[in-house]
Design brief:
Chain lengths: 522, 373, 458
């Protein structure tokens, strides 16, 4: 619209987030109000006081101090809160690198809400759940093909739970060979997702972390120094969170195998390599995917997510039980797995997200998955091309090499020049209606920024995101106060966080706030 | 209540850097820097920190400082009307810094801001400030862990500390040997520790999918260290705050700067002798095997040869590489930004022997494989 | 006009050939192959993935999914008496409306500024749940109730520095499998058999099992068998007498009428949020909660995120952040630290909206209804010939055990019920099965089950 009544848009969006200044729900309490009514017990059941036999200590004396609101007021409160968020559907969500913030198709949500999924009880007779069992079985086979592995469990609740599952299987594998006591070390890398180290440590392994060399990934010499008769496994992401693919990955795996260890592939960063390279080709024994990243299930404010573990035949006996089997006629829950590590969660997995992931793969097929992967990589290299021209940004490691699906950038130069830190750039990014993330702690790349554009964003989206970063860089150099005092147009102003680490003043709940800060008797 | 805040500026800090000198310590260097056209910027940067402090801490503050370029000028620029505790002569010196810090301590300041570099930090340390300290970075060498990342950050931390009392941790004061540095050799010494308030990285940036770094790392390192030491086993512990705090977690009071000898007893460690020199170490270790635990210097990554020369080649050979344990938190390693750990035992053959990848203990059941050269 | 080739996909905007070509040109690449230069040829798949042919249009996808999922028979199409950890409760429409909003469904890890609503909604969930649990600390939800129990037990072990865990009440064998897997590396798990006559905890066995190395005594309230064990307060005393923590798993839907475990001595309370506004979803909609008193040492052991209320620069504005994110401790740590990851935050928001709708009166009515309906079912079904309710002397909530003493065992009875359009309970062994009723069941439903059992339980 270049002429006419409406003037052209400025280069950058004049964003203003909703700012409802909504009170805590407890402050909306109107005594006696009801939000929803509950059926009353049928008096004809004439059971008297069903709790009469209980000791007084087990009968609730004081009603819970929940607020009382009418229905519209509950709805309105939460709708207002909903407007004070920036999800994938609203912003160009390329700033949350490592998390693959892709579009979650709306149609897939409709399947999940359908009673044919929502109203299924997990313990129903198998004959009444053949549809959902077939869906899970088909998804198991799809993940097997995408990874090249032989068998799959869809039980883990998220990526970290899947890593835990793989580590538990590794432990069981060596226990079955009488090597559990000897093989008590797991090797991982700095730029693999930190949950690899954390899950291995929780499982009782000693964790050895490899640091990268100038190429951005560890040298074979470093791995050689770490591998030995105590090695249980290598847990590694590839490409790592830098977006750099380790071309010697097969040699890494071989080295670990020579020492008698196993190799597990964290495929959290698989979005750029779907249909291009697989765990099988590199020789891995186990791998896992995050269905909420690569396979499009929504991130849901931090879960529910879903994880998929895929293994070779040698590891298959240890998969969590049950897996879904097919005997040629009917689908069944295969619970008779004596060597299984047992249960990772109740029942069979985050079924709604299995349904969504299945529908997503069915709507793309092999060619579509490859198109998605290639486009994610193209988008990333295009964005890197735009962003690396911005003043104060650099791309550490493997200079001049392409990246796959994400890049970990550094604002070290900008911080040195202006005193503005990467975190503050993130605050300011919110003023333009965009989200931004630095990296995991501790920062190995100084003043980090991690961008992962996935396949979901258009060229114009990427240009807009780069333009926002360029503008913030300009501000940092020319008017740093604008950045340092941001956000200006977000849902709230800067929080004062000093009390969050003070046991006398932190307030995890309303009742704690009333007791500790307001001095009330609760 | 009005908060008393102290300020001392080393007006010549940083003059060497801009003109390519490796530091600003010593009058000859300073004169050389002025001849080369250097303009002191310490006051300007101190004023920036004060302005940030004033903006973030609206309650009343009383600023105490020294006259002229040692504080008063910066204070006036930032809109303060300072109370003067010291009047330096025309040419300021390290003595003026220590005198000012002592006067501030007597006046009862709650917090001390100093503007300078590592040399200034040493002077502040020597004067024993007796309150938390924040360094405003203005020097050439700033390897000590007492400096904010930027003058404004110093002001922000100061404001947060005055309004709500931040956690205060002992942080290393180290200084390079400037003479050696100008001759192309790196040399560093740990001089001691100053109490520094720290604004936690509360800047959110914590995605839901993230696992936190282990904040209990030092306790975890202690637990891991203990797994190497069956009861009765001897441990030689190098200097620095990492080793000091690890020993404290195991119930042992050790020296910060010295090399100590301990023995595993029960669940913890028992100090046998503290602050040992090379001769004493060799005498005590003669014919016995001991483990040796060291932590690299923060920021530079010196493992051997700086601040722990007592651990001579003879001592190191008596322990052997397989009994050398390196302790560091993951954050400390990350701060090295990929640089290897440095070895400089004075014995090239031993350096070569100790070179290569070391398993650094970073927490309970946590190691990092890190190169040392 | 260029035709839309097969590779253009609605979910992939830059798959349009002209756009793709322009972007390649902008970065100076010949083709996307340039970006894959680091992947050696030997590691390339070199063929298309062998996947089912895609459904080109949304309409075809909907048809396929409807056909596939249409092979299920849901609890809407049958009369179901299944519970055992996944419960049929009414989900208010407002809960569904909120959790299906794009703004919540597709948010993730924004800052407290741009995702203020998510922080507030989750802090309010913590606060609402805290009222129900009578606890000052509640975490951002973990994966599920199994994980909550497993983590609470590890927390107790870290807190006490001990390694032994004792389970006192009847507990779901699947949950025990999870606990065994999760505690295996560092802990010892003792699962005590319950008193076979009453189904309740065997206090003598509990006393004998507790030692000075016991980190935690665990009980479920109600137990796996649906029993509200009158000894729950006494178990607290036994645990505390040896310096162990008392960890209680509870069904939150019961807490309008049953005491929150913290009031009878639980140090850590845990459980599953599914009964609070989450559909059954074939066992796929679970989330775990953990609550406790506000004690610094205990807070330090939470591996989960805890959001806290703080002021902003503007008076009266609410702000949020992570409490005790550092969890600094200089004590010697010999426990493997647990991880924090994406878990089940949106389910926490659902539970929060549910509690806000229900209010104290709704939670009381819900508890009264389920308790009364369960009592009626236990009595009515226990009266059927060849059917016993073996623990009828105990108060039950939702779940209860039926024993089939005739010629047909529990599984056979289930098959016969299925043939008559009824989903019977989960078989526990040859004769016993775990049945369940909630406020979604009417007297007529239970009478119908009783009459049907009368026919088949020979």
């Amino acid at each position: 619209m270049t002429e006419g009544l409406i003037a052209p848009k400025p280069a950058l969006r004049r964003f203003q987030q909703a700012r409802w200044d909504e009170p805590a729900i407890f402050d909306l309490h109107t005594p006696g109000s009801r939000g929803v009514l509950v059926p009353l017990p049928d008096p004809e059941m004439s059971v008297g006081d069903p709790l009469a036999a209980l000791p007084a200590a087990l009968r609730r004396a004081e009603p819970p101090g929940l607020p009382e609101l009418s229905q519209l007021h509950v709805l309105r409160h939460y709708l207002r809160l909903s407007q004070e968020n920036l999800g994938v559907d609203l912003n160009i969500d390329v700033g949350q690198g490592t998390c693959t913030m892709k579009y979650s198709p709306k149609v897939n949500d409709t399947f999940v809400r359908d009673p044919a999924v929502a109203a299924l009880h997990p313990l129903q007779d198998e004959s009444t759940v053949q549809g959902v069992l077939e869906l899970i079985h088909r998804l198991q086979r799809m993940i097997a093909e995408i990874s090249g592995m032989d068998q799959v469990s869809l039980q883990p609740g998220a990526g970290s739970a899947a890593i835990w599952t793989n580590v538990a299987m590794i432990r069981a594998y060596f226990a079955a060979r009488g090597e559990a006591a000897q093989r008590d070390e797991i090797i991982t890398t700095v730029f693999s997702h930190p949950s690899n180290a954390a899950c291995a440590a929780t499982a009782g392994f000693r964790v050895i972390t490899l640091h990268p060399d100038a190429d951005g990934y560890p040298s074979l010499a470093a791995l050689r120094a770490a591998v030995g008769p105590r090695t249980a496994a290598l847990l590694i992401t590839n490409p790592e969170d830098t977006g750099i693919y380790n071309p010697r990955i097969a040699e890494f795996v071989a080295l670990v195998h020579e020492a008698g260890g196993l190799a597990a592939y964290d495929q959290a960063n698989a979005n750029g390599i779907l249909g291009i390279t697989r765990a099988r080709e590199a020789g891995f024994d186990l791998c896992h995917f995050n269905l909420h990243k690569t396979f499009s299930t929504p991130h849901a404010c931090g879960g529910p997510a879903a994880g998929a573990c895929a293994v070779t035949e040698a590891l298959a006996p240890y998969l969590p039980r049950p897996v879904v089997g097919f005997d040629g006629e009917r689908y069944f829950l295969d619970d008779d797995r004596p060597e299984s590590i047992g249960k990772i969660r109740p029942f069979y997995g985050v079924v709604p997200n299995l349904v969504r992931a299945y529908a997503w793969i069915m709507s793309l097929g092999a060619e579509g998955l490859r198109t998605a992967a290639e486009t994610a990589v193209l988008n990333n290299n295009y964005l890197m091309h735009q962003v690396s021209r911005i003043r104060g940004v650099s791309v550490p490691y493997a200079a001049g090499r392409p990246r796959l699906e994400q890049v970990r950038y550094s604002w070290e130069q900008l911080a040195a020049d202006t005193g503005v830190h990467s975190e503050e750039i993130g605050y300011r990014a919110a003023d333009f209606g965009t989200h931004y993330w630095t990296s995991h702690h501790p920062y190995v790349v100084p003043e980090p920024m991690t961008l992962e554009p996935t396949e979901s964003y258009s060229r114009a989206d990427l240009d807009e995101y780069a333009a926002v970063l360029a503008e913030i860089s300009r501000e940092a150099y020319e008017e740093p106060e604008t950045v340092r005092t941001a956000p200006h147009r977000a849902a709230v102003h800067r929080v004062r966080h000093e009390t969050l680490d003070d046991p006398d003043r932190w307030a995890v709940t309303w009742r704690a706030y009333r007791r500790k800060i307001l001095g009330e008797q609760v | 209540m009005t908060a008393l805040v102290g300020l001392v500026v080393n007006p010549v800090a940083g003059v060497g850097g801009a003109v390519g000198l490796k530091g600003s310590d010593g009058e000859t260097t300073q004169r050389r820097a002025h001849r080369l056209g250097a303009v002191p910027r310490a006051g300007e940067r101190a004023a920036l920190a004060l302005a940030e402090l004033a903006a973030r801490h609206p309650e009343e503050l009383r600023l105490l400082t020294a006259d002229g370029p040692m504080g008063a000028e910066a204070a006036l620029v930032a809109g303060f009307r300072p109370q003067l505790v010291h009047r330096p002569g025309r040419r300021t010196s390290a003595w003026d810094t220590t005198a000012t810090v002592r006067a501030l301590r007597r006046a009862g300041v709650r917090l001390l801001l100093f503007a300078g570099g590592d040399g200034t930090a040493r002077d502040v340390l020597a004067a024993e400030p007796g309150c938390p300290v924040i360094g405003v970075p203005t020097g050439v060498k700033m390897h000590s862990a007492v400096f904010a990342v930027h003058p404004r950050a110093a002001g922000e931390t100061a404001a947060a500390h005055l309004s709500s009392g931040l956690p205060v941790h002992p942080r290393e004061v180290v200084d390079l040997d400037e003479e050696a540095l100008r001759r192309g050799r790196l040399g560093a010494r740990l001089h001691g520790h100053l109490p520094v308030p720290e604004l936690p990285l509360r800047i959110q940036q914590r995605k839901t999918g993230a696992t936190t770094p282990d904040p209990a790392a030092l306790g975890g390192i202690a637990a891991e260290l203990r797994t190497f030491l069956p009861p009765g086993e001897l441990l030689v512990l190098g200097p620095g705050s990492t080793t000091h705090q690890v020993a404290a977690a195991l119930g042992a009071e050790t020296t910060l700067l010295g090399v100590d000898l301990l023995r595993r007893e029960g669940a913890g460690l028992q100090p046998l002798a503290t602050d040992l020199g090379e001769r004493e170490l060799l005498d005590r270790l003669a014919g016995r095997s001991a483990w040796l635990a060291l932590s690299p210097t923060g920021g530079q990554g010196f493992l051997l040869g700086r601040g722990n020369q007592q651990l001579s080649p003879a001592v190191l050979r008596s322990a052997g590489r397989s009994r050398l344990l390196v302790l560091a938190t993951e954050a400390k390693l990350a701060a090295l930004r990929g640089r290897p750990l440095h070895l400089d035992t004075g014995d090239p053959a031993l350096d070569a022997e100790l070179s290569g990848h070391h398993q650094v203990i970073t927490g309970f059941r946590r190691r990092a494989l890190y190169p040392a050269y | 006009m260029t035709s839309t080739g097969p590779s253009v996909h609605p979910y992939v905007p830059n798959s349009v050939p002209a756009v793709r070509a322009a972007m390649l040109a902008a970065v100076g690449a010949e083709s996307v192959e340039d970006f894959y230069a680091d992947i050696p040829a030997a590691l390339r798949l070199g063929r298309p993935l062998d996947l089912p042919a895609p459904l080109r249009s949304e309409a075809e996808l909907v048809r396929h999914m409807r056909e596939l999922l249409g092979r299920n028979t849901s609890t809407r199409q049958a009369l179901s008496f299944l519970g055992a950890g996944c419960y049929p409760h009414h989900v208010p429409a407002v809960v569904d409306e909120i959790v299906n909003r794009s703004e919540f469904l597709t948010a993730y890890a924004g800052e407290p500024y741009e995702d203020h609503g998510r922080f507030q909604a989750l802090w309010e969930y913590q606060s609402l749940m805290a009222e129900l649990l009578a606890a000052d600390i509640v975490n951002v939800p973990t994966y599920d109730g199994f994980q909550a129990a497993a983590t609470a037990l590890r927390m107790a072990a870290r807190y006490t520095g001990r390694r032994h865990v004792v389970v006192a009440t009847a507990t779901d064998p699947d949950k025990l499998a999870k606990l065994a897997d999760y505690l295996r590396p560092d802990h010892r798990l003792t699962v005590l058999p319950v008193d076979p006559a009453t189904g309740r905890a065997d206090l003598g066995a509990v006393r004998a099992a507790l030692t000075t190395d016991t980190a935690a005594l665990y009980a479920d309230a109600p137990s796996y068998l649906g029993i509200v064990d009158p000894a729950l307060p006494e178990l607290a005393e036994l645990a505390h007498a040896v310096g162990a923590l008392y960890v209680v798993g509870c069904n939150p839907a019961s807490l309008g009428v049953l005491s929150p475990p913290s009031t009878y001595g639980a140090d850590l309370t845990c459980g599953d949020l599914q009964p609070l506004g989450l559909p059954m979803s074939f066992g796929g909609s679970h989330a775990g909660f953990i609550g406790s008193r506000d004690e610094e040492r205990l807070v330090a052991e939470y591996p989960s995120r805890l959001f806290g209320l703080v002021p902003t620069e503007v008076p009266g504005e609410l702000g949020f952040g992570d409490v005790a994110y550092g969890r600094t401790s200089f004590a010697v740590r010999e426990e493997g630290k647990e991880w924090v990851g994406t878990a089940a935050a949106l389910h926490g928001i659902a539970a929060g909206v549910h509690l806000a709708l229900m209010g104290p009166a709704g939670m009381r009515e819900l508890g009264e209804n389920v308790a009364a309906t369960t009592a009626y079912a236990v009595r009515r079904l226990g009266e059927v010939a060849n059917v016993e309710a073996p623990y009828a002397g105990s108060v039950h909530f939702a779940d209860f055990c039926l024993r089939f003493t005739g010629s047909l065992g529990a599984a056979e009875v289930g098959r016969e019920l299925l043939a008559r359009g009824i989903f019977g309970g989960r078989p526990l062994n040859a004769t016993d099965a775990l049945y369940c009723v909630t406020e979604t069941h009417t007297k007529a439903d239970i009478d119908h089950l009783a009459e049907t059992l009368q026919e088949i339980a020979k």
